[in-house]
Write a structure and sequence with these properties.
The protein is an all-beta fold and 111 residues long. The protein contains no helices and 11 strands. A 3-stranded antiparallel beta sheet has the order 1-2-5, with no helix packed on it. Strands 6-9-10 form a 3-stranded antiparallel beta sheet, with no helix packed on it. It is globular.
């Protein structure tokens, strides 16, 4: 049976493990353990450490949102789950800090 045609693809060096859509449908937030262990990746010239976002229509990366999850060096570090409420984005996982600010296990971002 036909399953459709691939519209876009975005490769990362680690697993994408969580997704959340912005309330207006213009941004897909992606979390996982990309860039948190041995393999490193840059998007828009910025290092990626577990979180990034793309345009859901064409897969183009947004170049303004790259929160860095620490600790580095473990394939298990990363954003395992996400929830968008329309005004807030909650991110949970194996997290000690994001951008140097302590957020043990859970973080919240304004949308």
């Amino acid at each position: 049976p036909a399953v459709g045609t691939q519209v876009w693809r975005f490769n990362t060096v680690g697993n994408d493990e969580s997704l959340a859509m912005s309330n207006d449908g213009t941004r897909l937030f992606i979390g996982g353990h990309m860039g948190t262990a041995v393999l490193q990746q840059s998007i828009c010239g910025q290092p990626v450490h577990g979180l990034y976002s793309v345009n859901p229509v064409n897969g183009a990366a947004y170049c303004d949102w790259f929160p860095a999850i620490t600790p580095f060096g473990s394939n298990y570090t990363g954003a395992w789950c996400m929830l968008s409420t329309g005004t807030k984005l909650y991110v949970g996982g194996l997290i000690d800090a994001i951008n140097g600010v302590t957020h043990v296990g859970l973080a919240r971002f304004p949308l």
